[in-house]
Amino acid sequence: MNYARMVIEREAPEEYGYDRIRYNLSESSIADQKLSDIGLTLPDLTLFYGEHRGDKELRALVAAQDESLSPDDVLVTAGAAGALFIIATSLLSASDHLVVIRPNYATNIETPRAIGCPISYVDLDFDDGFAVDVDRLAAAMRPNTRLISVTCPHNPTGTMMS
Questions:
Q1: Could you report the per-residue pLDDT of 21-64, keeping only the tens digit for each?
Q2: Domains annotated on the chain, with CATH
Q3: Who contacts 24 (Cβ-Cβ below 8 Å, separation ≥6)?
C-alpha cells in the first residue's frame, strides 16, 4: 500500500506541537495524560497484548444483543481508525468502487486509495444543511460500487441524519 500524507496531518499534535494548538477538530481535545496526573499508581501492573479479536467476555456481551450472532462474529478494536482500516481492507480491492460522502474520516479515504480502489465523492453543503442529496449519491454509484462510506455525526459539522 502507498499512503500519501494528507494536508490535515500537518496539524496533528505530534507534528505541530501540543503547545501551539488551540482547536483541532480532527484530534483529541486534550493533551496526553499520565496516570499520575489523575492520582493513579499501578506499580505492579503487568502489561500484555490483549486478544487480537477483542476481549472474549466483551465479544460475548455484544453478541448477546442479537440471537443470530456468536462471539466469533464480533470483532472489537482499540479505536475507530483500526476498525475503519479493517473494513476497507476486508471489503475493497482495486477492482471495486467506493462512494465517500464528505466530510469523512481520513482513514475512509486514504486506505481505499492506498489499495487502488477508485473513489467517487459526494460533498455535503452548508447551504443545504449538510443533508445527503440522494440523487447525487445515486449518480455517484457504479455497477462495481461495493461500499458507501457515511459518517454520522459529520465531523466537524456535528449534523445528524435521520
A1: 665 555 565 667 788 888 877 877 777 788 889 999 999 999 99
A2: 1-31 (no CATH), 50-91 (no CATH), 93-162 (3.40.50)
A3: 11, 13
